[in-house]
Specification:
4 helices, mainly alpha, single chain
Length: 167
């Protein structure tokens, strides 16, 4: 973050310095020789002021870049990280929407999808439990029926594993 921000600020500072130099060169080229001497005499003692003005502009641009980075780069990166955590979570969770309007809307949409997933998981768990209970009841009925039979019966699965038998 800091390195990227410094590189961006340096690039903008270099651009501002070039712009200032170009503007001064354009103004300088339109002046008569006597006006150039007068302007040189006026600006030379004030070069430090021009440099300070450039530095203040650079600080303002760096602050703006930092704000833009936090809003449009860091906030989506945090949302991505939180979404990945949400994907691996086994318990229902939700994201806190923050950042730009679009990022908040995206976080709300992700929360809706996660809620749908959690609801489907709960439904599947309930259906598995009901099916398990149904199979257990059927097995108990079959075992009760086999216990009443007078002949020997062995129930196996396709692998040859014995599932039920009577005495």
């Amino acid at each position: 973050l800091v390195r990227r921000l410094l590189l961006a600020a340096a690039a903008v500072g270099l651009g501002l310095a070039r712009w200032l130099a170009l503007t001064l060169a354009l103004v300088w080229s339109t002046l008569e020789p006597s006006q150039r001497e007068t302007m040189g005499a006026l600006l030379t003692p004030r070069l430090a002021l021009l440099g300070m003005s450039w530095g203040v502009a650079l600080l303002l641009v760096a602050s703006l870049l930092r704000l833009l980075y936090r809003r449009y780069v860091r906030a989506p990166a945090r949302l991505l990280e939180a979404t990945r955590v949400l994907l691996t979570a086994t318990e229902p969770q939700s994201l806190r929407p923050n950042g730009t309007t679009e990022t908040r809307a995206l976080a709300l949409a992700i929360n809706e999808l996660a809620a749908q997933r959690d609801h489907l998981r709960a439904d599947m768990t309930q259906q598995v439990a009901q099916a398990s209970l149904s199979v257990k009841q059927e097995k108990n009925r079959l075992a009760a029926l086999m216990a009443e039979l007078t002949q020997s019966v062995v129930v196996c699965n396709l692998d040859g594993r014995i599932l039920l038998y009577n005495n």
